[in-house]
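Batch 3, record 17
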Amino acid sequence: MPDDPDRRQSTIKDVAERAGVSLSTVSRVVAGNYPVAQATRTRVQRAIEELNYVANTHARALGGGATRTVGFIVNDVRGPAFAEAVHGVEQEAARLGHICLVATTDGDPARELAAIRLMREQRAAAVFLIGGATDSAAYRARMADIARSLDAAGSRLVLCGRPPLGDGIPATAVEYDNEGGAYALTGFLVGRGHRRILYVGGDLTFTTTAGRVAGFRRAMADFGLPVDEGLFELGAQFTRAAGYERVSARLRGGRDFTAVFAETDVVAAGAMAAVFDAGLGVPEDVSVVGYDDIPLATDLRPALTTVRVPYEELGRAAVRAALERPAGRPEPHQMLGTHVIIRQSAGRPASA
Amino acid sequence: MPDDPDRRQSTIKDVAERAGVSLSTVSRVVAGNYPVAQATRTRVQRAIEELNYVANTHARALGGGATRTVGFIVNDVRGPAFAEAVHGVEQEAARLGHICLVATTDGDPARELAAIRLMREQRAAAVFLIGGATDSAAYRARMADIARSLDAAGSRLVLCGRPPLGDGIPATAVEYDNEGGAYALTGFLVGRGHRRILYVGGDLTFTTTAGRVAGFRRAMADFGLPVDEGLFELGAQFTRAAGYERVSARLRGGRDFTAVFAETDVVAAGAMAAVFDAGLGVPEDVSVVGYDDIPLATDLRPALTTVRVPYEELGRAAVRAALERPAGRPEPHQMLGTHVIIRQSAGRPASA
DNA sequence: GGCGCCAGTGGGACCGTTACCACTCCCCGC
DNA sequence: GCGGGGAGTGGTAACGGTCCCACTGGCGCC
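Prediction for the assembled complex:
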C-alpha cells in the first residue's frame, strides 16, 4: 500500500465500471427519481456500498447550479442570543436539506465583507446576516451592492435582526420588535413607579440600540415623564464587564436613579453585580431589567425581568423566507413580536 | 431585462474576454503567484472589478483537490461550553484560510452519521466531532470506519473532547482531562470536610461522564473515604431542569449529603435552585460545585466553584492538529489540562 | 401488421477552474 | 550571429457530476 498523499474518493465512474452500467445510469440511481430497472438499481447500489462512494457536491454544484448550501454570518457564536438564532437557522436549513456555512466577525465590518465574499465563492443559496449592525450611509450602500450581487447570482441576502434596506433592494429582512419591546418594558418600570431610569446600552448608530432607545423614549413621553439626557450610558460593549463598570461608576457618582434598563441580559448581569458590590439590593434599592431572555436570566438571583425575543424563531423564519419563497419573488419583510417576562429583579422604588 | 430565474455569476471566461487575455492569464492573476506583466495584471483586475467576478469554489475544488473547507459537528451550539469550542474551531480555521461547515445532532448518533456524510460530500479537509459520545463497541467500529473512509479521501477525523479510537485508526483526538479535573475538584470538597457527596450526572456510557465519575471515585479512594453507591444520580440530561429535579427529589427524600458534585455548570445551576427552593442555603447547608466554568458560573449567587476547561483552546488545538500537521503523519493525541476555580458555592459542612 | 410510444439505457456536451505543456519574444553570453 | 533560457502568455485536458438527446426493444392499438 503506497502512501500516495493525493488519494482519491471513488467516483461515479468507478461505480459504473464495477456495476457494468453507464455513468448516466449511476447518476440516475443516486438521484433516485428516474426510471431504472429494479435489477440494475440493486446492482448499482451494491457497487456504491462496496466502493464506499459518496457524491461530490462540487461537481454537482458546477453542473447543476443550485447549491443546497446556505451561509450565516454572526458576530460571535458565544453570545447566547446569537446562539439561539444560529440554532434556528441551522435546524430549519437542515430540514430543507441544506447545509450551513458559518463565519464570525466580532462586529468588524471588514470581516463581515470578507465572510460574504467567501459565501459568494461557495455559491451559497442564501446568506444570513445575524444581529444588529452599525448603520450609516456607507453601510447601506455596501449592503445594497451586496444584495444586488447576490441577487444577480441567483442567491439571496437575508438580514436577521436588522432593518430592511429599502424598496428595490433585493434583500429580505426578518426583524423582531426592538422598539415595541423596549416600550413595553419601560412602561412596566414606569407602572411600578420608576421615574428616573438609567439606560445602559451600545452606540446609537447600532440598529439594535437605536430601536430600543427609541422605544424607551416613546414610553417616557407617552407617560408624560421627562427624559434626563444625563441618564444614558451609551457606547458600552454588550458584555458583563461593561455593564458592571458603567453601573459601578454611576453608583460611585451618587445614585440618582431607581432602575437600570440594561440593553441586554448579559449587561444586566453585570449591572446587578455592580449594585450588589455597592452594598445595595436588587430590587429593593435598584431595579434592574434586561433584554433578550437568555437562559441566564432565570438563573440570576433575583431572576431577571426582561423581554423575550424569539431568536430561534427569527432564524427559522429567515430560512423559510429565503428558501421556501416561491419563484415569483415577493419581498417579505417580517417583524416578530416580543413580550415582557416579569420576574423578580424589578420592584417599586423606595420613594413610591 | 428578462427575469430569468437561473442567472449566472460572471466567470473567468467573461473576465478574459473583457480584458482581452486568455483564461490562463486570468487564473494566474487571481491566484496571484505566477509571472504576469504588471500592465496585464492591472487590466485583468479592472475587468474583475467591473464584472464583479468572484471565483467559484466548486470549480476550484473539482480541479485542484484541496477544499479549504472544514466541518464541525456538535450536539447543540446553544450549550455555552460547546459554543466556546466552536468559536475556537472557527477562529483557528479562519486564520488558516478555511471556512467552516456546521451541523448539529442533538446527541443523536443517526444525525451524527448523516452530518458526517454531508461533510464527506463537501469533501471537507477535516471533520471535527465536538463533545462526548455514548461509547460502545458499535460506536467504535462505526467511527473507525468513518476515520478510514475519511483518511482514504485525504481528509481527517478529529475527536474533540472524546477519547482516541485506538492505534492504527487514522483519527486524531484532542481531549481535556475529565478524570483529573474531577479528581481535583473532589479533593477540594474532601479537603473542606465533605464526606458524603451527591454526584449528579449523565449516563456512564457517555465518555465525559465516565471520565468524571472515575476521577471522583479515585479521589474518594485516595482520601480513604467510602463511596456510597446510593449517592449517584446518573442518567440525567445536562440541563438546568434535570439538575433541579434530581436534587429536589433527593432533598425531599431526606438530606443525606453535604455537597453536590454537578457534572456541568448548567446542571449545577439547577441544583442550586433546588437547594434554595427547599429553603436551604448554599454553601451553608449544601455545597454545590460544577464543571466547565462557563460564563454563568460567575453570575450565579453564590458564584460557582467549578473546573475550568479550556474549550476554546480545545477547538484551536484540534484545528491545528488537523490542518498544520506536516505531510508525514504522526498521530498526535493531545490532553489539555484543567484546574479548579474556587468561588463561593462550596464551604465547610455544618458538621465539620 | 405496421406504427407510435415508452421504459430503460448509453453517449456525449457542459459547468468553471487549474495544471501542464507549448509557444513566442527578447535578452544575454560566447 | 547564434544558441539558450526565462518571462509572459495561450491552448487544452482533466476534475466529477447532471442533463439532454438518441437509441433499442417490447407492447398496445388501430
